[in-house]
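so my prof wants the structure for this chain in the tokens format not the other one, which i didnt know existed until like an hour ago. anyway here's the sequence
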Amino acid sequence: MTTEHILTNARIVLEDRIIKGSILIRDGLIADISEGVSKAGEDLEGDFLLPGLVELHTDHLEIHCSPRPGVRWDVMSAIQAHDAQIATSGITTVFDCLRLGFDEEGGFERGTMHHLASAIETAQREGRLRAEHLIHLRCEVPCADVLDQFSDFEGDANVRLASLMDHAPGQRQFQKLEQYIFFYKRKRGLSDAAFDAFVKRRMEASASYSARNRDALAARCAALGITVASHDDATLAHVEEARGHGVRLAEFPTSIEAAQASHASGMSVLMGAPNVVRGGSHSGNIAARDLAEQGVLDVLSSDYVPLSLLHAPFVLSDSIDSLSLPQAVAMVSATPARTVGLDDRGRIAPGLRADLVRVKRAEGVPVSRAVWRQGKRVA
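here's what i got, hopefully its the right format
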């Protein structure tokens, strides 16, 4: 049985322009787009209509799984709470980050991530979730067990993205020890001796395992058709290494030269939407707005604040004369979808999934007033 639904009187954000018009949804797909207001259908009262947002990198699920230090929450409850916040932020496709590679500082018990992935798939199968959830494996390459952890996921079709990370001191995000001291000594209350021993272990592990694990993981991802992301690239050598590994997504480059080189190499450069909203990086690295002004910012990620993915495109289009709202919205919809091979979504166009977000915004923080996934109202 065919189902149809019309949304009208909307400012429809297409890839290259904004039109005032209507959208016909048929059987979960966008069947037609027309200019002008229809007498039939749901009146959106002149609100913006955006494509459903595509989130490639969020650690937000971990906050729900462990809402306080030492507290482990019911997994299904945590997933549903995470999903509700994701969907009401306008995100219709989300890649949940799961950490692989554990040591004594890992935070979660071994096996937790595989259990989480199974629970996400169960929740999706049982119709508990509003957004579509896929898996992004955050692979800590200095860890001795990261390849064993990765092998547990090799038959999981929901794994569509893997990032190769090294958070050891002296590497990438933490090239300067001052940042490492803040993140790992002060925040954890380590003594001088304990911190020195911790740094020594991390540096030795990076020297022993990072290069070979990075090579092996990139090869496995290529064989499995999983998109590969680099993480925190800081130098031209890092970018060249990423090119050799077939990287399509450059996450959070820490220098302008690395961002420029990644973009020029055809990689999609990803930065945090919170970086845009705050006006700078919380860890003292480059500002996402600077990359946007130079035309080398391609994708935004909500990272740790889901609503920032809806807020940031408006901030960018307000503050950068050369960047239109459709161009900024593409950073959270069309470009991330294309980067990971999801060609059926991310744009408002005939034949694509009717993943849509109704947004009211005169000024300041935008409000998500309604969300549809495959034509079905989910928020």
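also thought this was worth mentioning. The two ends are 24 Å apart (CA to CA).
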